[in-house]
Amino acid sequence: MLTLAAIERLRALAAARGPLLIATDLDGTLAPIQERAADARVPESTLAVLERLTSAARVAVITGRDLNTARRMVPVRDVVIVGSHGLEPSCDSDLLPAIDLVALSAALEGIEQRVITAVPSAFLHIERKAISTAFHYRAAPELEAPLRHTLEHLPEGLRLRDGRMVLEVLPSAQSGKGLALTALAKQFRSHSMFILGDDATDVDMFRAAAALAKDNVHVLLGGVSGGRETPPEIAEMADIMLRSTEESREALETVARALGV
Q: Are strands 192-197 and 20-24 parallel, antiparallel or unpaired?
């Protein structure tokens, strides 16, 4: 259940000058974390709130999931999806990078084969996305060290990103959730924002929002607690802390009611 202080801040956000942008992470924020990433689902009640909010605000999901997977998880027509940490937007933006998909696919395949050769048991924990490859170790924590060692040196054009019990190889083109948020805020000319996130990749988004707040944008940062997996920066930067994906839904519901939708 939300605290009274959190409810007051959410209502103040709804009363602030618009346009309002609601930008949220997906896994661990909207969808409860599952041992197998493929099993994650956004509850129907949360999807319903997101749909209502699109009638009064711009709503975006900024995620490490690839665009097609994220759209299947959030099949709400007017929700903007930015997948692969800013590399796969569902809308046009001159601020987000273009990717050579043919060259990238070949490079990722090479990395996957390297990992399978060095750490055969990792085969069952590899998630190939549209423009990245994720190596999960949630179900097998002992894989973290050999995976890190194998992925320590990557070919030019690729970089490694840490997530919640996952290591992801993706293009080294300038990207990230912070860049994605900045691009959306400029595109939608947002004067107020509600940002939700729970892991290391969302810290970048929080920092970008804090920078935008210096330009007289009303910003409310909502951190979602994932226990020991949530980096301390999330709690340090957050204006309100939510204890679960259910409280994320409650926060969104509070905003929706305050907006009259």
A: parallel
